[in-house]
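Our consortium's second objective concerns turning raw sequence data into structural hypotheses that experimental partners can test. To show how far this objective has progressed, the report includes one record in full. It was chosen at random from the queue rather than selected for favorable results. The single chain below, 137 residues long, was entered without modification.
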Amino acid sequence: MTTPLSLEEIKTFFAADRFAMENGIKIIEATPGYARCTCPILPQHLNAGGTVQGGMLFTLADFTFAVAANAGGLPTVTLDGAISFLRPAKGNMLIAIAREIHTGKTICHYQVEITDDLGSRIAVLSATGYQKRPTQQ
């Protein structure tokens, strides 16, 4: 049996994710199967067209998935992720919410929705993860 991590334990663990931290992503809320993260829209996040670069949106969505999936105490890594970009962000902040759709013995499925602070839906990620279960002795 695994023990869910507290919000402080999750934040401490993910502080080592330098790419996410250096891009301004913050963990706001996390419980097993759920996470909410935010990221200010910074100049370095913009593409040549002046909108948030798709790679930044994918990073935020994948990171939020990782937080939700790891919050239950099982080490979880992304196996697959498919993102749909719906519209450019217009606000000053991105908000990502990850929700567990299904978890089996070792495979989990999540959906992550990204909105901006104006309430517009920006992107949706479908993610599959592998959860490393403790070995049975």
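The partners drew two points from this record. The chain has a mean pLDDT of 95. The chain has one domain: 7-131. Both points have been shared with the crystallography group to help prioritize constructs.
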